[in-house]
Design goal:
The structure holds 2 protein chains of 2 kinds. By secondary structure, chain A is an all-alpha fold. Chain A has 3 domains: 41 residues; 120 residues, no CATH class; 227 residues, MetI-like fold, CATH 1.10.3720.10. In chain A, 77% of the residues lie in helices and 1% in strands. Chain A contains 23 helices and 2 strands. Chain A has a two-stranded antiparallel sheet with strand order 1-2. In chain A, strand 1 and strand 2 form a beta hairpin. Chain B has a single domain, classed as MetI-like (MetI-like fold). In chain B, a hairpin with a 4-residue loop joins strand 1 and strand 2. Chain B is 74% helix and 1% strand. By secondary structure, chain B is mostly helical. Classes of the chains: A mainly alpha, B mainly alpha.
Amino acid sequence: MIKNPFKKYTTGNSSGINGTRNDQKHAINRKRFRLSDFLAERVIKGVAFMSITIIILIFVFVFREAFPIFHSQKKEAVKTTEVTKNEQASGELKPESYGSTEELKPETYGTPAEELKPESYGPPVEELKPETYGEPVEELNKPASSESNTTTEAKPEQYGVDTSKDSTVANYTNESTEETVAEAPKTPVDENRQALKTLNSQTWQPVSDDPRYGLWPLIIGTLKVTLISILFAAPLAILAALYTSVFANKKIREFIKPAIELLAGIPSVVIGFFALMILASFLQNLFGYDTRLNSFVGGIAMALAAIPIIYTIAEDALTSVPKTYYEASLALGASKWQTAFFVILPAATPGIFAAILLGIGRVFGETMIALMATGNAAMMGINPFESVRTLSATIGAEMAEVVFGDTHYSVLFLIGALLFVFTFSLNAIAEFYVKGKLMKRIQGK
Amino acid sequence: MITTTKRRDIKGAFLEGATLTSALLIIAIIVIILFVIIKGGKGTLNWDFITKFPENGMTEGGIFPAIYGTALLVIIMSIAAVPFGTITAIYLTEYAKENSLIAKTIRFAIRTLAVVPSIIFGLFGLGFFIQFVGVGMDKAFLGGALKWGQPNILWASLTMALLTLPVVIVSVEEALRTIPRDLREASLALGATKWQTIRKVVIPGSFSGIMTGTILAVSRGAGEVAPILFTGAAYYIAQLPHSLSDQFMVLGYHVYIMSTQSANVDKTLPIQFATTLVLLILTFSLNLTAIIIRYRIRRKAVR
């Protein structure tokens, strides 16, 4: 494949060396090459930093969308103080706040409502929105927003602004009289505040007249499924790893390892489909419980997704135990299985612990299997044969129907943030704590 | 004395048997999944099924748009993920010092990316690509007309690219490490600069690794559904996507939606099985290819 890769350069260089009078040219040549080298290194380094950037961006943006929930109260506080302040100064303040939305303002005043409407479809709605707080434009805005409701895409932006651009909102409250503040679209803020209160409650009921966003049933459901699947997956995967790393001969190992790797290649939606169509009925016949789809079925199905991860990492850990351990144990008269269970397994415990942690992370965040096989009913009980709704399934099922930017949307992002923080810390623990311990143990400190 | 050793032997045989049984059980599960889905889907799977559009409210006809959408998705995804993944891997093996803080941080970030639940990528795609970049682009270039600020194939592919980035990086890095040090040193000794060495020696030598990475990424991307649930996948679209700002149908999403949300699940059962079978064949053959290539690389490295 690599046939004389330096053909160009050897000729170029040799001419440079031979012709000593071309010293200058040679120097220039070298400099140019150095430049490309320099650039390449910079670009490569820059790109390599992207993975870090992505992680940070995920942090920032998932939290950004979840933020309005917590922000509502602060905003309320700002509003009230501002209102009291502007009692005296509202007149002077007006011109200032006009400046911020210059483009649209004149039109709003100059033209009748009908002509404005078309413009308020897109992002301009955003610029219009703040006006609702203080100005008579309110009537203008209302038809626009009701129409954008039907288009579904424009509405989100409305809310989005209301919550994220709080600085402008604060600005506008300056000019508002008490009356308009009272009747301005305070609902999202109110809802947010209420949502924050209900987060700790025991019912998840986001779509109703009295929406309740109790996270506990979701958390308990997730933990239940995770526990079941890890109880099933971890022993199976670890024993299998022990088999391939200690007992199996080379030929069998080279068959089993890729086969289990293939299991990792089965998409989770296929596993979910399998669980939904076949496994659920099979297990129901076997155990005879009432609800066909429940946390037990979901747990078993997710175990299928977790097994390859636990297996691969545990296998790595087991094979990285120094061979001398194995030989020393055999030399002392221990049999093969004693060596496997009493020497190699304990030596690899930190790695196996890491494997289980990552398996938990996988199950915890698994969405498609949870959506398809757990029944998706947010219930609080600890009975494994009841339907549950996991955190990630909640996001997956409800995000599509939610209005961008409203309270429910933010709560879903909050759940996402929770999931992210959880898996992030699991990974961090597996990475730093376990690895350090493993190193220490193997080096015999 | 004899009885204790005997008992110990029995215990040993039992424990060893347990390890063997678990390994076999895992293999058996794979075989059962394959068997069930092949059995359920092979009756419906034929040429027409692959090349036709869904008909009669998705209760008849084929899944061509889903296959087309999946192909488009993974192509755009690879265009984004493979160069970035390869360059990151090159940085980690060629430029970064093994134990420097930067390299460690990048590695940690990559591993984190690999374990972040796929639904989080979906949320990120929605929050960043659609709500931030897309809406921003609309405002900047289109004066507010809604084009990019909604779910479409571009955002879905880029979201998927983030998800598959670690897969590419890990495979390429592994391949790069198998290139002997001697080759690099020979190249440097001949007067080539570092960048020339990378371009002419390292990258050609790691070509098979880049291939494996791409294949694994494609297989992962074709099978994942959660990240595209709300960044671009559609239930049913009458025509194929013809621009980057169109929504699209995907095999995995098709399976999900048909088996959980469609009006008469029982009637479409054969279609669901056949769609799953297509998806499974796709990901399985890709994975198998990758495993074989990887196996060859490893053997070459040992030699």
